[in-house]
Amino acid sequence: MSKPAGHQARKRFGQNFLHDPGVIERIVSAIHPRPDDVMVEIGPGLGALTEELLSVNPALQVVELDRDLIPVLRTKFFNYPEFRIHEADALKFDFAELAADKPLRIVGNLPYNISTPLIFHLLGQAGVVQDMHFMLQKEVVQRLAAVPGDRHYGRLGIMAQYFCQVQPLFDVGPGAFKPAPKVDSAIVRLVPHRELPFPTQDLKLLQSVVRTAFNARRKTLRKALGGLVSADQLQSLGIDDGLRPENLALQDYVRIADHLAGQ
Predict the structure, then answer these.
(1) Residue 4 has pLDDT above 60, yes or no
(2) Which residues pair with 189 in a beta bridge?
(3) By three-state DSSP, how is residue 97 classified?
(4) Which H or E run includes 42?
């Protein structure tokens, strides 16, 4: 899809506009939208993916921060009376307000510069979400899906997997975008658990334990978590205090947090 005259991708918004029809078709096929879904697209840009989603779901809603793109979208999709544009910062947007009697299906080609904080923001609203399909920097998808011992394993993957099943789908090369980014991208599906597999007594405490551990990921647990829990306490939980943070599974971090919550 060609860019309308006068609109340049903005670096401060992390814009890279998707234009490859084959990639767009593959993404829509993976999402498998239905006419009665409550569907929300984050950062529609010039509407390449939006156009395909609207053809199936005419009540699609989008969240777009760049005010220069709003009239472009309104003009392009004027013949869809149910189409709604929310001019807002997705990082501050209350997605729960859009969920009426059905959970949300959220999609988006997320800007690289805000993808991690935006995912954390959305995980906090996972209770109103059916699924999420995102185009992300390939390394971010690797971090989301990483398992213990993997070099990509860390806070993002642990907290994403606390709330969701993470399914990497396929990679997308730089040529699918204008301007072409300097990194590869990938599509990921996040499906919130109907029942949390390892529920914690105190979510904020779990987040604090994980954050503290990975702030010192090269150190042993006894040093990384020294300010929170003692080596004796870790050993009483059956956790080797000589391991590094990347060696512990989600359920291990939940055990540590719940132990601290019970003190």
Answers:
(1) no
(2) 133, 167
(3) helix
(4) strand 38-42
Tens of pLDDT, residues 75-111: 999 999 999 999 999 999 999 999 878 999 999 988 8
Asked if residue 214 lies in contact with residue 155, where contact means CB atoms within 8 angstroms, the answer is yes
Per CATH, the homologous superfamily of domain 11-192 is Vaccinia Virus protein VP39 (3.40.50.150)
Report how far residue 47's alpha carbon sits from residue 35's, in angstroms, rounded to the nearest whole number.
18
Looking at CATH, the fold of the domain delimited by 203-261 is given as Helicase, Ruva Protein; domain 3 (1.10.8)
| Alpha helices (H) in the chain, listed in sequence order | 21-31, 48-56, 69-76, 115-123, 138-145, 155-163, 203-214, 221-224, 231-236, 250-261
Sign of CA dihedral 140, 137, 186, 32: positive
Flag whether pLDDT at 201 surpasses 70. yes
Q: For residue 30, give every residue at least 6 positions away whose Cβ sits within 8 Å of its Cβ, in sequence order, or none.
A: 133, 169, 170, 187, 189
Q: Which residues, other chains included, contact 71 with Cβ-Cβ below 8 Å and sequence gap of 6+?
A: none
